[in-house]
Every structure is written in structure tokens, then in C-alpha cells.
Amino acid sequence: MKIVIDGRLYGLENAGLGRYIKNLVSELVRIDSKNDYVLLLRKKYFDLLELPKNWKKVLIGFGHYGFGEQLILPGLVENEKPDLVHFPHFNVPVLYSGNYIVTIHDLLMHKQIGLASTTLPAPVYFIKRLAYRFVFDCAVKKSKAIIVPSRAVKDELSMEYNNVSNKTHVTYEGLDNKISNEKGINIDTPYFVYTGNAYPHKNLKRLIQAMVHLNNNRDEKIQLLIASSRNVFTKRIEKIIKDLKAGSFVRLLGFVPDSKLGGLYKKSLGFTLSSLSEGFGLPGLEAMGAGTILLASDIPVFKEVYGSNAVYFNPQESSSIQKAMEKVLDMNPTERKKRINEGQQFAKKYSWATMAKQTLDIYKNESSNCIRQGK
What is the pTM of this model? Predict the structure, then answer.
């Protein structure tokens, strides 16, 4: 069996999607020496990655979401004569007519409609949104199988598209043991922490409002540390911090590497995840695994992934976020230690190795189906 994997978004600089592809590839390398793989890569990782003999690297000179992806990529893939292609994101070339599976991580952009969710001028935004829906719809409908990271995403997908439930497979993401909890950032003030992007659905404004109210009612000041790569959306957060006069309580750290991320989690009072919608919620698992308490939105996907191992709040109300923080602050040392230990044990059940094994089983099953059907 010959499988092509689109790895153009490989790498931690591409956030959760890049981590997903990175771990999928490394685990497939470890568990499968029988099948042949072709990995499409941008120049950085084409040069850096060393792969075994059953893997071939192909250099791709263009990125994602562009004309090259739609017009050139189909021919490059077809030249490899694969039995199956895995597109790990919805951006499947519309013109590609071969057999493929696609990973749909979430339907966030289906829900985020309006200029507040973009940095583009209105005419460009609406054109790109139409293109997005067309590409996404084609990817879902033409795929042989769909991989999703949670039942919550499967349910959303089934409500949006008819007749896709039977070909949709849930493969949970994993806890990355490469995240060290030995190092951190020297912070003297007690703090809660958030890591991730600053997109509107992350609901950081209400989180910051909660911090302001929390500090207004306490003698000992508590900080919120936000670790997020700097872009237009973090600039919007800077303005929110200024408008709310929260500069004394909220600190933007920029990007924090894995070598310091675990320590940042471990030394915190808790990791706060105030999202309005998500596909999985990997940072929450990483934070639990590193040894801190998770505070999370009371939304279906988090209840599915975290179970009873989080302090939940209503993400629509900053006062509810504040109360969750106060609950964590008021925990006695024995209760806190118990929660942290239980969270660490719980997080271990999520494994990238298991995810890769399940994905390989899907490859084998869909390849066999295509052979039986003569496609």
C-alpha cells in the first residue's frame, strides 16, 4: 500500500494542526515498516527530517490556501500513483479525483461569521469565505473516510452534512511526552495561564474581565499569563487589556517553546481554557499532564475529553470564570494535590501512538475497500 500524506503544515509553528501531523508521522514511522509513504513537505522540514527507507519526501514550493494548492498539487499527488492520500486538514484540492481521507479538526469557521473573525477587508473576506465553504464541502463529500478528534465534532459534522456519519471515525489526540515540566519562566506572582492562539472563539476578553474582577476583590494580586504567538489578534488583546485597565494583572508572553511550556503549566495556579467552541482541546491535556489544575468552559467537547477532571464554568459569563478561579484559589493543599494527581493519571490515557494505530487501520480498511470496488 502506498500512502501520500500532505505534510505542508508539519511543525509546532502551525499550532495544534502542526503538532497533529508531526506526531502522526513520527508514530507511523515507529509502527509501520511494511507500507510505503510519501510525505509532502515545505523546505524547512524537507531539509530537517530524516525518514526510513519506506518513506519518500517530496518538496512542495507553495503553502496552503492558495492557487498552487488547488491547481498544481493534484498533479504532483497523482504523479506518485498512491493507493490513498491523507489530507490532514480540510484544504483538499477540489480538482483531485483520487481516493483520499481527510481529517476535520473542527467546524469553527462554519460558526464564526462576520468581520470580527478576520483581519481582511469586507469584500475579500466574503469571497474567501465562499471559497472556504466550497473547498470544505467538497472535501467532506468526496472523501472515502473522515477522521475527527472527538464525538462532538462528529455530531456537528453529521448535523451539517447528510450521510457522512458512517464514514466518520473518531481518533482522539494524544499527550505529548516531549513537553518538559522541568523548566519554566521566572514569575514571582501567583498566576493562571492560557496558551494558544488569540482568535475570537478563544473568548479571551471574558477571561481578562474575570481577572480584573478577581483582583478587585483580593488583597493578594493574581496574574494571568497569555502565551500566544504575536499577530493581529494578539494586538486586539493588547487593546482589550488597555481598555479594561488590566495591565497590572495580564501579561502577554509571546510564543513559549515546549522546553519551557511544561514548567509554565506546572508552576501555575491553573490553566484556563475559556473557549466558546473547540474540536478537541489538546492544551488542557498538556497542562494536566504537566501537573496543574484545569479550568475549562462547560461545553460538550471539553466534557467529553476531560470528564470530571476540570473545574468547569459558563464561558458566556465572566463572573462564572471568576468563581472557578476562586474555587481553585480556595482549595486546601491536600485537595489540590489530589486533583493534580488524578488529572495527570487521566491525561495519560490519551496517546499519539493509539491515534496513529487507529489511523493506520483506517488506511488499510479504505485501501481494501477501494481495491474491492475497483477504484
Answer: 0.89
Phi (first) and psi of residue 10, to 5 degrees = -60, 140
Same domain, 22 and 146: yes
User: Is residue 54 located within the same domain as residue 156?
Assistant: yes
* Domains: count for the chain: 2
Domain span holding position 106: 2-174+351-372
pLDDT (tens place) for every residue of the chain, 375 residues total: 999 999 999 998 888 899 999 999 999 999 999 999 999 999 999 999 999 999 999 999 998 888 899 999 999 999 999 999 999 999 999 999 999 999 999 998 777 665 555 555 666 667 777 888 999 999 999 999 999 999 999 999 999 999 899 999 999 999 877 665 666 677 888 999 999 888 889 999 999 999 999 998 788 889 999 998 877 888 899 999 999 999 999 999 988 877 888 889 999 999 999 999 999 999 999 999 999 999 999 999 999 999 999 999 999 999 999 999 999 999 999 999 999 999 999 999 999 999 999 999 999 998 877 766 666
340 and 202 within one domain: yes
101 and 8 in one domain?
yes
CATH number at residue 209: 3.40.50.2000
